[in-house]
Design brief:
Largest sheet: 6 strands, mixed
Structural class: alpha/beta
CATH superfamily of the largest domain: Exopolyphosphatase. Domain 2
CATH architecture of the largest domain: 2-Layer Sandwich
CATH topology of the largest domain: Nucleotidyltransferase, domain 5
Number of strands: 14
Strand order of the largest sheet: 8-7-6-9-11-10
Radius of gyration: 25 Å
Oligomer: single chain
Distance between the termini: 49 Å
Number of domains: 3
Helix content: 40-55%
Shape: elongated
């Protein structure tokens, strides 16, 4: 089995574990996740922060089973971090010592700044580049990290968390007191000007999942989902006034009923304070941050330029049989540079086209017959990181192919059409991708093909193009494009 690392994150409300498997130096995927609502911080905030016996017992039992799972995957490393509940508790050493004695596991208690950094660093590496502030609402505290196109510039931690607000205020029906407490805490943040808030943590994921179901969102991925402040505010207000029956109809899971309202209230007050206009859901957080800090420890906590771990994982796992994807990418770049102005394709789509070209053969790793459909499914399912939902939808859709049809012909009803570019652009990108693929039908090197474009005519020069010319009969061309061949 390839190298596996298990990361355990002990929070005030939930304890989670992810098992990561490497497929090459920096590429990885998650092969198992476990979660337990141990509520380690339960009743602590009303008892001077002291951890109570029953929550500690639950957490110890769950930890033992987490470790059993990790060992079943032959995890070479098991890294365990704890945040607010153990950070705040005067008796935390009692619990840490017990776990070391019973399970031979060392728990690293991280401070608020480190927690904010790990969550923010995971976002900078595993979401599309952007300027934003990451906000991780946990059970005992909330962490903030200012992100600037790949770097974490500053971190802050405030003692506002779902369990803390629930026990100190909402259990006593003191909503106004909770708002005053949260707003006062937020005054400790420096002036921050950003249009984008990245939500980390269970509350934001629960709200995102509910919103996606409510609006029948086509792409089933929490990570990277985007919503504007008005729509989010309207939905959050519904949550705050909902009965348990109404919460269920709003797609909130029952195990979230007691913490979703304090978490939603915290998020609303943060959104009001920061005046952000866009909210993006992060499916990654502290666990991924801990894993990446180990994986990238000699690379300044950043992936190499233009590196995408999801793309590399797919290539490692399904495209080991040939170099065809790389040759398609090289030829697609040249075709795009020659044709994009004439075909009126915005230049930024070159990035998605190249990724699609690299991934074109991955379906063959599943089954040759109908491999295009398998490539489409794999890309749609496993492209998780450093891409927007629109980019993922486009890349996956370009990988579909049917003789005599354009890309727009292949958009099915109730699909992710709302995430795709306009039809002219979509069809032009599809033409370039499959033109590159067919020109390489003989599996020759892309450098052996010479291209010239003038006044709507693409002249293709090279040897061994008989098969290519045959296959190109199956590819509809844009009206502005004519192909000629010369040996």
């Amino acid at each position: 089995m390839a190298q596996c690392t298990a990361i355990i994150d002990i929070g005030s409300n939930s304890m989670r574990m992810a098992v990561f498997q490497k497929t090459s130096r920096f590429a990885f995927h998650i092969i198992h996740e476990a979660k337990s609502s141990v509520r380690l911080g339960e009743n602590a905030y009303k008892n001077g922060g002291y951890l109570q016996n029953e929550p500690m017992e639950r957490t110890a039992l769950a930890l033992g089973e987490f470790l059993s799972i990790a060992h079943s995957f032959d995890a070479r490393k098991i890294l365990c971090v704890a945040t607010s509940a153990l950070r705040d508790a005067p008796n935390s050493s009692e619990f840490i010592t017990r776990i070391r004695r019973e399970h031979a596991l060392s728990i690293k208690v991280i401070d608020g700044a480190k927690e904010a950094y790990l969550g923010g660093m995971a976002c900078t590496n595993l979401l599309a580049p952007m300027e934003a502030i990451s906000v991780d609402v946990g059970g005992g505290s909330s962490e903030f990290a200012l992100l600037n196109n790949g770097t974490v510039e500053s971190m802050f931690s405030l003692n506002i968390g779902t369990v803390r607000i629930k026990e100190l205020f909402l259990d006593h029906n003191d909503t106004e007191g909770a708002i005053r407490y949260i707003d006062t805490a937020l005054q400790a943040l420096p002036p921050i000007k950003t249009q984008t808030l990245i939500g980390i943590g269970g509350t934001f994921r629960a709200l995102t999942r509910a919103l996606m179901k409510k609006e029948q969102y086509p792409l089933k991925k929490l990570h990277g989902y985007s919503i504007n402040d008005i729509r989010f505010g309207e939905f959050a207000t519904q949550i705050l006034s909902a009965s348990p029956k109404k919460l269920k109809s709003l797609f909130i899971k029952p195990d979230r009923f007691d913490t979703i309202k304090p978490g939603t209230l915290i998020l609303l007050r943060i959104l009001n304070h920061l005046e952000a206009k866009e909210l993006i859901c992060s499916g990654v957080g502290v666990r991924e941050g801990v894993f990446l800090s180990d994986l990238l420890r000699n690379a300044h906590d950043r992936f190499p330029a233009n590196y995408n771990p999801s793309v590399r994982f797919l290539l490692d796992s399904y495209a080991t049989h040939s170099d065809h994807g790389n040759q398609c990418a090289a030829l697609s770049k040249r075709l795009f540079d020659l044709l994009h102005l004439s075909l009126e394709i915005p230049p930024h789509y070159r990035h998605e086209l190249v990724i699609a070209a690299k991934l074109l053969p991955i379906g063959i790793g599943v089954r040759y017959y109908a491999y295009q459909r398998h490539s489409h499914y794999l890309a749609l399912s496993a492209l998780d990181y450093a891409l927007t939902h629109r980019q993922i939808a486009l890349i996956a859709h370009l990988l579909l192919f049917k003789k005599g049809h354009t890309a727009s012909d292949l958009i099915s009803k109730n699909s992710f059409a709302t995430l795709l570019p306009e039809m002219q652009t979509l069809d032009a990108l599809y033409t370039i991708l499959w033109l590159a693929h067919f020109l390489l039908a003989q599996r020759q090197n892309a450098q052996m093909i010479n291209l010239e474009f003038n006044e709507g005519v693409l002249e293709i020069k090279g040897q061994h193009l008989y098969l290519a010319r045959e296959k190109l009969k199956d590819l509809p061309l844009p009206k502005k494009l004519v192909l000629t061949f010369r040996i």
